[in-house]
Amino acid sequence: MSPLTTAPPTIASVDLSALTSNLRQARRLLSPGCDILAVVKADAYGHGSVAVTEALAREGVTRFAVATIQEGAQLRDAGIQAQILVMGALPPAQLADLLGYDLTPVIYEPTIAVALAARLGAGSNPYPVHLKVDTGMGRLGLPPDQVLPLLQSPAFQSSLRLEGLMTHLADADNADPAYTKIQIERFQAVLAGLHKAGLSVPLIHAANSAAMLGHPAAHFNLVRPGIMLYGYSTALQRGPAATLKPVLSLRSQVAQVRNLEKGDSASYNRSFIARRSTKIAVLPIGYADGYSRALSNRGYVLVQGQRCPVVGRVCMDMTLLDVTDLPVVRPGDEAVLIGRQGTDAILASDVAAWSGTIPYEVLCGIGPRVPRVYS
Q1: Helix, strand counts (H, E) of the chain
Q2: 214: CATH
Q3: Residues forming the active site
Q4: Taking the complete model, does pTM exceed 0.90, yes or no?
Q5: 162 & 289 share domain
Q6: Percentage of residues in the chain with pLDDT exceeding 70?
């Protein structure tokens, strides 16, 4: 069957020059000797992990982080040879795949170290791993007092080699820095204990995007920018955060224009009842594409440079807009759900506020049937 010859009405445009600009902003925050571990999990936050990783690699990034072994395998299958760190769960049944794809695990449980060492076997070259310390996130991670005993265990005397130590900051975007300072102090105490025991740690990382912007003490010698690479920050929008450029825009086209009389309803459950003669534009995008049902009767979309309200329930495949106040709207007119049109712009952070979530979820939620177009 021949490939499609025309673009569909709904696309996500990814501006790789904005991505590299954000990378430059991230690098300006770093002290000498500190490097970037770019987070490309969740399909690079919905931007397309292969294209994003390749673009960042062209800019000199040599380390990338994913959440799952499957995500790492996808990058390897695309020909990416850089170091890939798997920061999420490590099911024992998948350890063979982890090794087969030459992925670097983050170990958060002693039994995983034992299982990995057993699979490697005696006599093999020590395999590089990172350990995760739980300093207060309350998710995956070793309690601080288990780190040194694990590194002194048989698994690390033969088959495994400590390449990095990490922790995850739970509250780095809070205007009150108190809890983040506590976590950093706990992490530093673990590092001091390892140093006292004569153990070296080549790579030390704790800072996510928010900590990169607001907590220089968390930078150590490796940082993990994620959301800031894609143009957003949950930290206060000041300094470098204010200069970040959103990388992704989401656009569709008007499929049909309908006229409602006063009292007519639109979409499921009649949650929108026209209070006047109303002109409705139907867009071929819905929650199956990642445009959340929570935006029903709450969101806005740019048409002809004007914000038009979403009316009625967002459907699986369609969204309705009230375009009554626009002079003429026709099928094929562009509708911008995320991005700029004319003098106005709708950001993923705006969509997040309307739907009661965060920009991360908005970007990650854009579905696979929406093609990504790169420029």
Answers
A1: 12, 21
A2: 3.20.20.10
A3: 41, 268
A4: yes
A5: no
A6: 97
